[in-house]
Every structure is written in structure tokens, then in C-alpha cells.
């Protein structure tokens, strides 16, 4: 009786185990052919009809109108959709969510925030973002190291990540929990460094804890008068140069939060990798950014969100005024040849909704192809994955999404990603 039952049960158990494994992870070296009505060649801007990609394990083998169909390959027919590279967001905050903002360090424990960050990572991936640069845990220290590593191991779903740990800030600077009773010692959102030596020491500590690059607050707080942005710099050009040299020593880079001059100019001269926000840049700053190929990361979506949902009562008009002058300056940045990368600053607004940024980049002066090239080609460079992500080419990671319609005709279709593959694993299917 017992042996009879085992003969029945064992094959069933093996089948269940195999099914469970297949759900969570594509087996290594699995051959997959993706077929769809259209495929975007991001470099040329050409649309291939139909489009196909052959994937082996985590890499692309071939992409074109038709590809080889090796025996045993799984064919996924995505019908009337367009295949394109997985989207890239170069400015995100997995450890932020709508609501708490400045008091998050007081109201929420780091373990709680880390769990929420894993949910945010999943939401971003399901929206089609297969690679992201996290621009600061905002007071959760190096907890992002664990999130990045769990994603890399395949333990949890999420984009491939570059992370900074906490951002770095001067005492009394932009993210130093200003506006509370000083005696309360409200935990700041950033690590402190007040001079070049301290910058280097903080960066070494962060690198030791796992960060891929350093994020430095270079300006703030912003005010607007007569169409001009006024924002105090936080570090001198020589202090930022010391930080850039220290990062370069170990093959890393520095990215700054800088909304305007003179801080943005100091950062450009120092040779940072990106100037995030870039609300109002002077001619000399734009010239240096063009010359040194320093990316501006506009983050329009967060500004639009804060104009509609101000952090302080009555703060909406100021946020709108900043957005208005940014839109004017953005056209000058484009004309001056400042390289642009896409970054939404998602976190304070809901994760998974940030393809809105591409819509705003088009609304404010870019072509749809230009916005997508900024996202994919420039994003891959800024995230130090050039030649590995951002295009559908042999040898690249199989980070592939599919959308209905054609984003070159309607950029908002990127807000409706229906298929997501990252590193050859399918995470979302129509
Ligand atoms: Zn940010």
C-alpha cells in the first residue's frame, strides 16, 4: 500500500517542483525567440516590421526582422506590439514613497523602508524599467546595498541597479532636517561632510558599504525672483574636484543635485558625471557640460508633481515658477548640445508611473526619438553599462520590453508596457 502511493506521488512531486522553478526563473541557457509586429532600432531610429529577438540565457544573440529559430527555442509571439530595449531611469529613490518625505527617517524604521524599497523595485520593473540609478536612500544609509544585491542574485524582482547609499550634504544644507526643533536631533536624510577631507572620508565609508557612486547635494534651497533662480552652492569647485578624484581612483563617479549656478558650474568644472535637476544653467555651464559630456538629468516629473502636491501649504506657485523657468532653460540646453539623460526622481510620486518623464521631455522640446535615445543610449553610459544595455544588439543583456502602438508617434504608449524581460527572464506577459 505504502509503496504504491509513493509510485504515484513521486512523479507528481517532481513535476510540481519543476513547474515552481520555471515560474521564478528562466533556466540558464534557455533559448527564446520574441516576435512582434514592430522592433525599434534605437540607434538609427528605424522601425523594423516585423521584429524578432533571439535570446540565449541572459543575453541577446540576434535581433532583426527575422532571426534564427533553433530547435527547442521557446517562441513568444507578442502580436501587434513594438519591441524595444528595457527603459532606464537615471534618477530614482526606491526608499521614498508618496507622503512621508522629510519625516520618513522619524516615522519609519530602516527595515520597514527596506521592505518597501523591494516593492518599489518590483513596481518599477513591471512598468518596463529594467535599469535604474538610485540617487540616495534619504536616511536609510547603505540599506540599498542589500536590495541591489538581492536583485542581482535573482532573489527578488527589480531593475539592475546602481546605488549611492545616502547622499552627502553640508551641515545645515539641503537635506539636513531643517525646520524642526534642533534639540530633537531629527535624523537627516544625508551623510555630513564639510570639507574635502570629510568628503573623501564619507565616500570611502560609503564605497566600503557597497555604493557604486557618490551623490552630493551641491545646491539648495531654491528661490525664484524675477524669473531668476537663486540657490546657494554647498561645496567649492576644489572640494568637488577632490570628490571626483577620489571616486575616479576606484573607477566610480560623482553625481550632483544642482539646480543652478554657481554650484552647477563648479560641478561641471570639477567633472562630475551628471548634474541632476539642472533647472537654470548659465551659458558657460552649458558650454562646459557639452565639452566634457556631462549629462543634465531634468527630473520634470517631480517638479510637476510638487507643483500640484506642494510639501508646504501654498508652496505650489513657487514649484510651478521653477518648472516654468526650467522649461525655458531646457530649450537652451538642447540648443547648446548639453547631453540629456532621463531621470524622473520617482519616489515622492508613485513608483511605476515614471514613464511620464519621457512624455514631458517631448512636451518641453525633444523629439520622441531624441527622448528615447537620451533614455536608452545616454542612460546606459551614465549607469556605466555602455555596450551592455540600452539597445537590442548581439551580446547585450536581454532587457527587452514591448508596448502597443509606436512611441515615435505617441510617446505615452511607454506608460503601457505589456511585456518585460530582464536578463532573459520574463517578468510580465500580456
Ligand atoms: Zn532625487
SSE diagram, text form:
Layout: H1 2-24, E1 31-36, E2 38-41, E3 46-48, E4 51-56, E5 59-64, E6 74-77, E7 81-85, E8 87-92, H2 104-107, H3 110-126, E9 129-134, H4 143-153, E10 160-163, E11 167-169, E12 190-192, H5 196-208, E13 214-217, E14 223-225, E15 228-230, H6 237-249, E16 254-260, H7 263-270, E17 274-280, H8 283-292, E18 295-297, H9 300-308, H10 316-335, H11 356-363, H12 368-382, E19 400-404, E20 419-422, E21 425-428
Parallel strand pairs: 1-6, 2-7, 8-9, 9-10, 11-12, 13-16, 16-17, 17-18
Antiparallel strand pairs: 1-4, 2-3, 4-5, 7-19, 14-15, 19-20, 20-21
Helix pairs in contact: 5-6, 6-7, 7-8, 9-10, 11-12
Bound molecules: zinc ion.
Zinc ion binds at residues 91, 93, 135, 345.
Helix content: 25-40%
Number of helices: 12
Give the termini separation.
46 Å
Note the main sheet.
6 strands, mixed
Shape call? globular
The domain tally reads 2
Number of strands: 21
Q: What is the assigned CATH homologous superfamily of the largest domain?
A: Metal-dependent hydrolases
Poorly predicted segments: 1-27
Bound ions, cofactors and other small molecules, one mention each? zinc ion
The largest beta-sheet arranges its strands as: 3-2-7-19-20-21
Radius of gyration: 23 Å
Average pLDDT rating: 93
Structural class: alpha/beta
CATH topology of the largest domain: TIM Barrel
**What would CATH call the architecture of the largest domain?**
Alpha-Beta Barrel
Which class of the largest domain in CATH terms? Alpha Beta
